[in-house]
C-alpha cells in the first residue's frame, strides 16, 4: 500500500514528487503516470545485486511490459540492454536513440521484414525460436552478405508456478526448441554450420509473476546440463546463458513477492556451483526483467463518475477508463489495489466494485476495494499498473488510449499524447 511519505499536506497522493490531483487536472483522465525514480532504483537494485557477485552479466529490459520512446531513453541513461519482440518495438527503441548493439530480438514468428530490419540495423543478438526462422535468417544473411550474433531459445521442460497463460518454459509451449526431443541439438548443429551466424549462447524463459526462487534454480541446473552435454557432443560452450525474466511484484497484500537481490543471489550461487561441478567456464548471465522494473512505478488515474447502489449488494463505483487501458483483470483475473488520490487521509468506509466504462459485464478493474466515501469527480488511483497496462491497451468501444506522463524530482513531462477521436478514424477510408 501507499506510505505516508507519498501523501502531501492536502491529503493528496504524490507521484514522483508531483501532486496526482494536479496531474489529473492538467492532463485529464484516464492517465498513466510513472515515478521515474522508482524505475531507476529498480534497475540499480538488479545491477548492484550482480555487481557483488563478480559475474559478468547483462540486465535486458523486456520491452513488452511497456514500450515508448521515453522509457527507452531512461533505460539508456541507466546503461542496460533491452529486448524487443516485434518490428514496432524495435522501431520505437531505435527512434529513441537506444543503441542497436544493446538490443535483443525475440519472437516466435518473426517476419522476413522484421528480421531484415534487425540485420540492417545491426541489433546485438537475434534470439532464434524455430527452424523456419533459422531458414529465413540464413537466406537474409546470404542475400545481404551479412553476419549476426544469435542465441537459441530453448524449452527446457520447466513450468513456473504462475498463471497458465504465463508459463513458457514447459515442453508444450509455442516458444523455443524442445530439449528432450533433440530439436535443440539439431538447431545447434545447423546454426554452428552457418558461418554467418555467431552463436553466443542459449536462452530460456520459464514464466511470469514468479514468487519463488526454485524455478530459477532448476533452470540454471538444466541450462548447465545442456551446456555440458553440448560441450561433450559438439565441442560447443555457450558464452552467455540467458535466464529470461518473470520476477514477481506485489500487486496486493496477498502477493508475497521477494526482492531482486534475493533472486540474483540464488541464481549466482547456483551458477557458480554448476560451473565448478561441470568444469565449465563461468558464462555471462543475462536476465530479462520487465514487470519488476516498471510495474511498481506505474499509477493509473481515473475520474469517478456514476455509481450503482442496490440494497444488500456491493455498490459499483464507475470510472472513466477500464479494460481498454488495463485488460489484465479481465484476461488474467489480476488483482490490484486502489486509493482515492484526493482523499488519502480519509477513513475507509465502504467496500465497492471498481467498474470500467466499457460495454462488458466483465469490465471490473477491482472486484472488492475499500474506499472512503466517494463522489463524482474524485480521482481514483490504481497502484502498480506500470506493466502490461498501456502496452496491452486497445481502442475497444472506440475509446482513445490514455496519455502517459513521467514524473521525477517534482517535475512532470508528457511522454505519450492522449489519442483523440480524430486519431481513431485517421486510418479509416470511405466505402461510399
UniProtKB/TrEMBL annotation:
Pathway it works in: Amino-acid biosynthesis; L-lysine biosynthesis via DAP pathway; L-lysine from DL-2,6-diaminopimelate: step 1/1
Pfam families (UniProt xref): Orn_Arg_deC_N
UniProt EC number: 4.1.1.20
Cofactors, names only: pyridoxal 5'-phosphate
Subunit composition and interactions: Homodimer.
Task of the protein: Specifically catalyzes the decarboxylation of meso-diaminopimelate (meso-DAP) to L-lysine.
Name of protein: Diaminopimelate decarboxylase
Amino acid at each position: 500500500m501507499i506510505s505516508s511519505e507519498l501523501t502531501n499536506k492536502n491529503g493528496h497522493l504524490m507521484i514522483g514528487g508531483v501532486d496526482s490531483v494536479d496531474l489529473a487536472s492538467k492532463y485529464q483522465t484516464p492517465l498513466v503516470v510513472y515515478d521515474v525514480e522508482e524505475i531507476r532504483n529498480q534497475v540499480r537494485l538488479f545491477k548492484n545485486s550482480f555487481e557483488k557477485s563478480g559475474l559478468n552479466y547483462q540486465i535486458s529490459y523486456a520491452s513488452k511490459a511497456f514500450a515508448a520512446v521515453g522509457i527507452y531513453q531512461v533505460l539508456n541513461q541507466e546503461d542496460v540492454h533491452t529486448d524487443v519482440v516485434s518490428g514496432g518495438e524495435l522501431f520505437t527503441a531505435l527512434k529513441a536513440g537506444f543503441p542497436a548493439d544493446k538490443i535483443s530480438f525475440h519472437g516466435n514468428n518473426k517476419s522476413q521484414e522484421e528480421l531484415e530490419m534487425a540485420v540492417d540495423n545491426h541489433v546485438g543478438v537475434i534470439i532464434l525460436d524455430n527452424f523456419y526462422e533459422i531458414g529465413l535468417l540464413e537466406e537474409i544473411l546470404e542475400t545481404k552478405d551479412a553476419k549476426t550474433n544469435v542465441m537459441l531459445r530453448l524449452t527446457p521442460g520447466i513450468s513456473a508456478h504462475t498463471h497458465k497463460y504465463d508459463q513458457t518454459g514447459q515442453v508444450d509451449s509455442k516458444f523455443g526448441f524442445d530439449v528432450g526431443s533433440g530439436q535443440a541439438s539439431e538447431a545447434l548443429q545447423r546454426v554452428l554450420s552457418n558461418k554467418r551466424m555467431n552463436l553466443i549462447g542459449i536462452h530460456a524463459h520459464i514464466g511470469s509473476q514468479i514468487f519463488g526462487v526454485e524455478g530459477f534454480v532448476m533452470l540454471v541446473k538444466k541450462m548447465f546440463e545442456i551446456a555440458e552435454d553440448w560441450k561433450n557432443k559438439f565441442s560447443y560452450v555457450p558464452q552467455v546463458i540467458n535466464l529470461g525474466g518473470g520476477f514477481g511484484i506485489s500487486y496486493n497484500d496477498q502477493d508475497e513477492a521477494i526482492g531482486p537481490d534475493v533472486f540474483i543471489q540464488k541464481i549466482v550461487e547456483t551458477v557458480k556451483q554448476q560451473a565448478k561441478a561441470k568444469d565449465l567456464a563461468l558464462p555471462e548471465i543475462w536476465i530479462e526483467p520487465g514487470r519488476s522494473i516498471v510495474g511498481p512505478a506505474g499509477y493509473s488515474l481515473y475520474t469517478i463518475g456514476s455509481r450503482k447502489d442496490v440494497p444488500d449488494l456491493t455498490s459499483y463505483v464507475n470510472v472513466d477508463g477500464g479494460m481498454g487501458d488495463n485488460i489484465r483483470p479481465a484476461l488474467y483475473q489480476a488483482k490490484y489495489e486502489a486509493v482515492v488520490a484526493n482523499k488519502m487521509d480519509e477513513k475507509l468506509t465502504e467496500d465497492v466494485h471498481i467498474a470500467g466504462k466499457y460495454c462488458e459485464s466483465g469490465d471490473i478493474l477491482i472486484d472488492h476495494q475499500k474506499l472512503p466515501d466517494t463522489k463524482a469527480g474524485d480521482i481514483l488511483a490504481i497502484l502498480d499498473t506500470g506493466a502490461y497496462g498501456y502496452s496491452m491497451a486497445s481502442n475497444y468501444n472506440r475509446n482513445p488510449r490514455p496519455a502517459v506522463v513521467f514524473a521525477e524530482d517534482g517535475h512532470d513531462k508528457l511522454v505519450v499524447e492522449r489519442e483523440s477521436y480524430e486519431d481513431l478514424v485517421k486510418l479509416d477510408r470511405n466505402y461510399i
